[in-house]
Amino acid sequence: MRANVLRSVTLATALAAGSTASLSAQSDDASRLVGALLGDTPMVRDLQTLTDEIGGRPTGSPANLRAFDWALERFREAGVEARKESFQMPGLWLERSARATVKGKGVTFSPKVAALPFSTGTPAGGLTAPLVDAGKGAEADYAALGTKAKGAFVLIETDELLDLDGLFREYTEAGHIERRAIAAGAAGLVYMSSRPGNTLARHNASLGFANRHPMMMMERDAAARALRLLREGTPLTLSAALDIQSGPAYQTHNVIGEIRGSTRPDEIVVIGAHLDSWDLGTGALDNGANSAMVIDIARQIHRLGLKPVRTIRFALWNGEEQGLNGSFGYTLTHAAELDRHVMASSYDIGTGRITGFFTGGRADMAPVLERALAPVAALGPFAHINIPIVGTDNYDFMMQGVPNLVANQESANYGPNYHARSDEFGRADLRQLRLNAAVAAATTWGFATLDLSLRRHSAQQVDSLVRNTDLADQMKSFNVYDAWTAGKRGLRP
Ligand SMILES: [Zn+2]
Fold first, then answer.
1. Distance between CA 312 and CA 252 in Å, rounded?
2. What is the pLDDT of residue 11?
3. Residue 429's closest CA among 318, 345, 317, 354?
4. CB 484 within 8 A of CB 424
5. What's the rounded Cα separation, in Å, for the pair 156 and 158?
6. Most exposed among 270, 331, 338, 451, judged by the fewest C-beta atoms under 10 Å?
7. Radius of gyration of the chain from its Cα atoms, rounded to whole angstroms
8. What phi and psi values does residue 254 have, to the nearest 5 degrees?
């Protein structure tokens, strides 16, 4: 039934276009492109170079700049026009080192810790304070602690993070946990790592650059030991030394590859992935894999000599992890062109199978997707979910009313390795990455070639999306709501 529907849609489009010949040329092109991406391309080698040789590449670090130079070179080597486009980061935050020692009567151990992004540093000699059991960080936990939280490091017990649902829960709860700790007068906050054993991860402090407290994650095994000791009545102190490099707003850049449209070059389709990563691991799943994929799609389109109708921009965003800054910067730089942006897509959930797309509250996206995905129907089934998503680089396009997509992917191993020491090349599912590249290429090619009439939404339509969905809650979780209400980010009526 699905195939029949697609065939009749295709036929209707061909009749509307008045040319069955050009339509079949388009779908031949899509099939050739899909075939090329399923073949032996340099994508996997690129991912290996990016992760093993350049490594973790937090925004503002030397490795980050190297990665963007490397990406520019990959586009140019492939014959694809590419450029750096600068934008402003709101601030700099990098961890130089993090150490901690837990002490009690007759017991001393030094667990591995990692500063939460946007944590403040401690004095050079470290900060020593009582370490207290704050349970799960709920209202009742702080009430039970009473005045003991004041001036202490509060230790928060966590559930192990197993999947994407757990990750979203972690993000949603963190804001409340941190606000309560600050209200209770805590000197600092320590999360038990939600990853097994001694694996650490970087979970952003929920206040972002506005955070004014030392916050860290402690390896799960050691945090469990500390909690057992505390619950058996052994008072503990924590000495933590967090050496943080921080600084004011500064300029950095995205890298944008471009293949000009043949007959409608002023209409633009964006396929994007963020090339920056956190630094405990080497950023293979988040988001080296999809960055290598974006480069390879550009490379194969150029190699095959394919001519899209519309201009395709291949965006490697920077500053994503600190608040979706690179794609925000793009929407500022290209504000005058946004009316002509037909679609902007983001790929950012590792290497799990693409099951469809989040269409951002735009019902008019699904019929185009159905047509675009026809050449890769065998890799489906695909189901699209028409809700707005906050958390990756579609955000500012969505808030500017630009039709936007986020690839929805099977969670696979994305959650447990998220921002973690374990996010390494060996965790990427290379076979599935190839299949995903075929799906992403077909989607991009479809939007760049099919007849369609997707219009940018107005400020009123964006406002109604915020009012009629859970978008505001998501925006608050990701610390971007205030900028919207203040008129600094996104369309406002
Ligand atoms: Zn990511």
1. 23
2. 31
3. 354
4. no
5. 6
6. 451
7. 24
8. -90, 170
Q: What phi and psi values does residue 407 have, to the nearest 5 degrees?
A: -60, 125
Q: How many residues does the chain have?
A: 493
Ligand 1 centre and the CA of 316: distance in Å?
Answer: 12
pLDDT value of position 15: 31
Tell me, in angstroms, the distance from the centre of ligand 1 to residue 263's CA: 34
Cis, peptide link before residue 62, omega less than 30° from 0: no
Give the separation between CA 281 and CA 58, rounded to whole angstroms.
11
Distances (CA, A) of 64 to 116, 231, 275, 349: 19, 43, 8, 20
pLDDT < 70 stretches in the chain: 1-26
Predicted pLDDT at 23: 54
Distance 447 CA to ligand 1 centre (A): 23
The pLDDT, as a whole number, for residue 25 is 67
Strand order in the sheet with 264-274: 81-89, 250-259, 310-317, 264-274, 341-346, 404-409, 354-358
CA of 285 to the centre of ligand 1 (A): 8
Q: Decide if 139 contacts 117 (C-beta within 8 A).
A: no
Secondary structure of the chain: what % helix, strand, coil (to 5)?
Answer: 40, 20, 35
Bridge partner list, 256: 83, 315
The closest of 137, 195, 133, 186 to 161, measured between CA atoms, is: 195
| Long-range CB pairs of 164-172, under 8 A, 24+ apart, other chains included | 164/349, 164/411, 164/414, 164/415, 165/411, 166/194, 166/415, 167/414, 167/415, 167/418, 170/194, 170/203, 171/391, 171/477, 171/478, 172/477
Closest CA to 219 of 238, 202, 200: 200
CA of 296 to the centre of ligand 1 (A): 18
**What's the half-sphere exposure (Cβ side, CA atoms, 13 Å) at 405?**
31
| Contact partners, residue 75, CB within 8 Å, separation at least 6 | 81, 82, 255, 257, 295, 298, 299, 314
